[in-house]
Specification:
This protein is an alpha/beta fold. It has helices at about 5-10, 55, 65-75, 90-100, 115-130, 150-155, 160-165, 190, 195-205, 230-245, 295-300, 325-340, 340-365, 390-400, 420-445; strands spanning about 30-35, 40, 45-50, 105-110, 140-145, 175, 180-185, 210-215, 220, 230, 250, 275-280, 290-295, 365-370, 375-380, 400-405, 410-415. The chain starts with 5 loop residues before the first helix and ends with a helix. About 45% of the residues are buried. The mean pLDDT is about 95.
Length: about 450
């Protein structure tokens, strides 16, 4: 009897996320045996570049020694204790650190993952209205093409059809803002002034003033929405509008926070502070699930009352504020400050932009190149709509040494923020070779 390989054994039982399992008949899972820095190590002995930071979370790369030391130190104390009615030094220090990221958000609620953080922010907004007797404010506004997670509330305020359409029967209605003023970088004139688009948007928003509890958006960068970048002026104008009309502002910084866009928080590009900030992914630099919601004392006071008055926020996550995760986040934030990781992201991003432009020039198969912080993206020029060109490029890039996982036909790089320049040069060569191998037949058709 033939013994099955580890990959074949896995495929008998594992339902892999975010994809079509039939694809694994032709593109087998990669057997990972280790990971370090910007590289993933395979059972074949190969090392491939983690070009998307393992779904945008490996801020400091794999197996960072200081993070390993931090979690081991916490393990020697305790691994997890219920956060309800308990506290500890690690979570206290972390809470002080997180609330120092802004001037007005001085309360932290902990959860387990990004979608849950979004759900909590939405529930806090809605519940605070109930407690204040503002019963008409029950609706949410979001950006067209935005994405906030796969739980039902987060999905309801998302606008990427491939994730949402099958569940239309159970999600609630949301008003989506458009046109979104997209830019190629923070040097685009539209970055500073989107007044023309705002005139259209503001008129649309007028009919929703009385019924809206909150506006929710990903600041500056729509990650799952094909890495599109938009004007910081829109954030400024929307924040002013929400202030004026007693509407909360929720910033989903799950992907954009902790340095990815070249600022500690993407909201800082526009100089604004929302009512809620949702953080995840980069918080633990991808070591484990952990998320946090920052909010203001004003929101907190909506729930602070005698128990019998029924204003308590009864939301709980078993692992909310998990001590192991908290120890890692605390060390991540220390490292980010010490090495000026935000500036590293900006420098790395310019290098990546130059490399992507070079690829576009030499191949002629890329359009709409854009960059913010350590994010660079471009669109494949498609002549045959029936071909899954992004998927083909993905397969070829893996063969050549890079985990390049496109969003449809959007090619993007989101490597760890401390990736070395030599690795970006390798990524450039691999991406160019993969594009030429696949796209030459597309352009000829």
């Amino acid at each position: 009897m033939t013994q099955l390989s580890l990959v074949e054994r896995g495929l008998k039982h594992i339902w892999h996320p975010c994809g079509q399992m039939k694809d694994y008949e032709i593109f087998k899972p990669l057997e990972v045996t280790g990971a370090k820095g910007s590289y993933i190590e395979l059972a074949t002995g190969e090392k491939i570049i983690d070009a998307n930071s393992s779904w945008w979370c490996k801020t400091l790369g794999h197996n960072h020694p200081r993070l390993q030391k931090a979690v081991l130190a916490q393990i020697n104390k305790f691994e997890h204790v219920i956060l309800a009615n308990t506290t500890n030094e690690t979570i206290t220090l972390l809470s002080e650190k997180l609330t120092s990221l802004t001037t007005s958000l001085n309360k932290v609620f902990y959860a387990g993952d990004g979608s849950s953080a979004v759900e909590i922010a939405m529930k806090l907004s809605l519940h605070s209205r109930v407690n204040k007797g503002e019963t008409k404010k029950t609706k949410f506004i979001a950006l067209k093409n935005g994405f906030h997670g796969e739980t039902l509330g987060a999905l309801s305020v998302s606008d990427v059809g491939i994730y949402k359409t099958p569940y239309q029967a159970i999600v609630f209605d949301t008003f989506f803002i458009s046109p979104v003023p997209y830019v190629s970088s923070n040097e685009d004139p539209l970055w500073l002034d989107c007044s023309e688009q705002w005139q259209v948007i503001e008129k649309q928003l007028e009919q929703h003033i009385e019924t809206t509890t909150a506006v929710i958006l990903e600041p500056i960068l729509q990650a799952s929405g094909h890495m599109k970048i938009y004007s910081q002026d829109l954030l400024q104008r929307l924040r002013a509008w929400t202030y004026k009309h007693n509407i909360h502002f929720i910033a989903d910084e799950i992907m954009t926070g902790i340095g990815r866009t070249g600022k500690m928080l993407a909201c800082q590009h526009a100089g604004i502070e929302p009512d809620f900030i949702c953080l995840g992914k980069g918080l633990t630099a991808g070591w484990m699930p952990f998320s946090a919601i920052l909010t203001s004392d004003e929101i907190y006071q909506c729930f602070y009352d005698d128990y019998n008055n029924g204003t308590s926020f009864f939301h709980s996550h078993t692992y909310g504020g998990n001590a192991l995760g908290a120890s890692i986040v605390l060390e991540v934030l220390n490292i980010v400050e010490e090495v000026n990781l935000c500036e590293q992201a900006n420098v790395l991003g310019k290098i990546m932009l130059s490399a992507m432009r070079e690829i576009a020039h030499e191949t002629g198969v890329l359009a709409n190149i854009r960059q913010i912080g350590a994010v660079v993206a471009a669109e494949l020029i498609v002549t045959d709509p029936n071909r899954r060109l992004g998927f083909e490029v993905y397969q070829k890039a893996v063969q050549l040494g890079a985990l390049l996982r496109p969003l449809g036909n959007t090619i993007y790089w989101v490597p760890p923020l401390n990736t070395e320049v030599e690795t970006i040069d390798k990524l450039k060569q691999i991406t160019k070779a993969a594009l030429l191998a696949v796209m030459i037949t597309n352009l000829a058709s």
